[in-house]
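All the exercises in this workshop are built on plain-text protein records. There is nothing in a record beyond a sequence line and a structure line. A learned vocabulary of local backbone shapes supplies the integers on the structure line. The question running through the whole workshop is how a given chain folds. Here is such a record, shown just as it appears in the course material:

***
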Amino acid sequence: MEAKTPRQPMFNLPGIVVLFIAAFAVVHGVRDWLLSVDMDDWVLATFAFVPGRLSFLWNPFGVSDVLEKLSARDGSLAMGQYFLGEGTPQPWAVMTYAFLHGDWVHVGVNSVWLAAFGAPVARRFGPLRFAIFFLVAAVGGAAAHLLAHAYDLTPVVGASASVSGAMGAAVRFIFNPNAPLGSAAGFGNRADARAYRLPSLPLRYLFRDRRVVLFVGIWLVVNFVFALIAGPLGITDATIAWEAHVGGFLTGLLLFDLFDLSYSRRTYIEAEQDFFPGDRP
């Protein structure tokens, strides 16, 4: 009698990824259904990332110039002053902004992409390291946005920087010669789990892979183009913080090894020789 193949679940996401997606939904649900407009504005002023609140520390005159320009627009000055508040920094906002979203479409898009790219990274890092990584990628995105818009008083919200960080981290191992993209995604048989446990490709070799170059190139172009056309096409009324996306992606790409602690230096060297035997010393 032929043994039955065990049925695989349609959705097989790590618990920490499900937890983040649930947090996005709960937070936005509370804001959308339970809070008044004034209370929601307070939430944004308290937990969204406002670059001008940080830059006010070292250059209040730069922020004052922005307020002066806003005074020429109807209602913009009051909004800028509200989100600047007393000009005191809110260090937690470089992380908490990732749990706020502009609308349900924003929640859905970030949830889908986190499920797709966060799942293999979460399986590799484990729940605690992935949670810390998620927050660090958010900080990286906020830092990049701050560099590009140092005195801006528009609140930045969304998990896109952290999701982009997961994409950057995933690039480090899902294209490895012995880790096919399909298996690395973590769906299918449990034997496929080995694919995303293989040693990651060293950074100096990463961009020799044409698939990596193509993926990163397309990702950058799509982010830039979407930032330009989303408003005119009516997809969203908000400005797309594409610089934060790039900051998150680079954070995941470059800091991957700090979170991939289960692999020794010797393992990396052996993997390097397996991937590129012609480069052995």
